TrEMBL record:
<keyword id="KW-0732">Signal</keyword>
<feature type="domain" description="C2">
    <location>
        <begin position="9"/>
        <end position="126"/>
    </location>
</feature>
<dbReference type="GO" id="GO:0051607">
    <property type="term" value="P:defense response to virus"/>
</dbReference>
<dbReference type="InterPro" id="IPR000008">
    <property type="entry name" value="C2_dom"/>
</dbReference>
<feature type="signal peptide">
    <location>
        <begin position="1"/>
        <end position="20"/>
    </location>
</feature>
<dbReference type="GO" id="GO:0016020">
    <property type="term" value="C:membrane"/>
</dbReference>
<dbReference type="Pfam" id="PF00168">
    <property type="entry name" value="C2"/>
</dbReference>
<dbReference type="InterPro" id="IPR035892">
    <property type="entry name" value="C2_domain_sf"/>
</dbReference>
<dbReference type="InterPro" id="IPR052784">
    <property type="entry name" value="Perforin-1_pore-forming"/>
</dbReference>
<dbReference type="GO" id="GO:0022829">
    <property type="term" value="F:wide pore channel activity"/>
</dbReference>
<protein>
    <submittedName>
        <fullName>Perforin-1-like isoform X2</fullName>
    </submittedName>
</protein>
Length: 152
């Protein structure tokens, strides 16, 4: 009888842990914290007027404000993903605002909530590099109970 109770308890614990990690749907809170951007070169080189555009699975969800005249902008701006999957691609695209011409693309990087959770880094700061710079962000994952987010 004791073995039966132990097996039941172990099964219950295992099932609970499996269920917690099996949730593939949820919401992500994304905070774009800061960046380091490459210096401009050329005849009219100057400081950057930087901002970040945020996309989820190719859909634009927002952008940070423009921080003028710095190579190390700090935003600490929050974005909500809406309901997404753990495998959804979150892309950070770094831009230099040009007031007389089109904005200049400086680099981008992509991450999935699954990568963040796999690395046991939920709700902690991450740095992702691109050529000559980086973007620092925080991603917090809020799983849907029993994957009911997408049900109508």
């Amino acid at each position: 009888m004791a073995n039966l109770v132990l097996c039941f308890l172990l099964f219950n614990v295992c099932w609970t842990l499996t269920a917690a990690f099996a949730n593939t749907e949820g919401k992500a809170e994304i905070i774009v914290e800061q960046a380091h951007v490459p210096r401009e070169t050329g005849l009219f080189a100057g400081s950057r007027d930087s901002y970040v555009r945020v996309y989820v699975d190719g859909s634009y969800i927002g952008k940070t404000r423009v921080i003028d005249d710095t190579h190390t902008p700090v935003w600490n701006e929050r974005f909500d993903s809406g309901y997404i999957k753990k495998s959804s691609k979150i892309r950070f695209s770094l831009w230099d605002k040009d007031y007389l011409e089109s904005d200049d693309f400086m680099g981008s990087m992509t991450v999935t909530p699954q990568e963040v959770l796999r690395d046991n880094m939920n709700a902690t700061s991450h740095v992702r590099h691109f050529p000559h710079g980086f973007v620092q962000f925080k991603l917090t994952w809020f799983p849907c109970p029993n994957d009911v987010c997408f049900e109508k």
